[in-house]
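User: Can you predict the 3D structure for this chain?
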Amino acid sequence: MKKIITTLLLAASAISLAGAKSRNSSMAVIAHGTIGYNLGTSFDSDKASADGNFGGNMLFGGGLGFNYGIPALSGLGVQAEVNYKLNSVSTKSEAAFVVSNTTVKTYSYSSIDVPLLATLSIGNFQLLAGPYISFPVSDLSRKSKSTTTAGSTTSSTDSDGTISAIDSPIFGLTFGGSWTKDLGAVNGFIGARYSLDFSPVSYTNKDTTTKYFTRRGLDIDAGIKFYL
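Assistant: Here is the predicted structure, written as C-alpha cells:
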C-alpha cells in the first residue's frame, strides 16, 4: 500500500513540475491537427469556377512543431512546423449551345508543408504569421463527372485516375491566431489559419507547363503544447 501511495505522489509531483514548466518555459513542442475548406482558390482555366461540393473542397492535416519564445522580447517567438496535408479542390465548368454540359472535377493530392512562423503571445491568445514551403508527395489525381442535357434527355459520364506529377516546391504564406488553455502538464489550444500559395499546382513536361489551380484555404487548428 505504501508503495502505491509513494508512486501516486511521485506521479503527482511530476505532473506538477510539468505544469510549472508550462507556465515558465520558453520552449515547447506542439502536436496539432487541422480541418479546413477551400476559400479563394483560383483556377487557371477561365471556364472553371469553384464548385459548392462541400466534400470535394475539404482539407485535412496534422503535424509537429517547435516553438521558442524569445526571452529578451516579451511575447515574441518563432515557431517551425512539419505538417502532412490532404488537399482536395472541386471545380465546375458549364457550356450551353445546342446541348447543355456541366463538368465537375475534383482534384486531390497530399503534401508536406513546412512553415516558419513569427508568433506574438498576448495573455491566452497567440497571433502567428509567416512563409511556408509545400512539397507535394503524391501525384495529382482527378475525379470527373460530366452531365449532358439535350432536350429532355440527360446523360452522365464518370471518370477518375492519376493525371500527373506536381512541380515542387510551392511557396506560400499563412497567418492566423489561437486561444490557449493551461491544462497542467500541457497547454491545449484551438485557432484558425488562412493559407495561400504563391504559385499554382502545375505539371511541366519538357517545355510545356500545365497549370491547374492555386490553393488557398481556411483551417481550424487544434492541438496540445508541451513545454520543455
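Confidence is low (pLDDT under 50) at residues 8-23. Residues 2-24 form the longest helix (23 residues).
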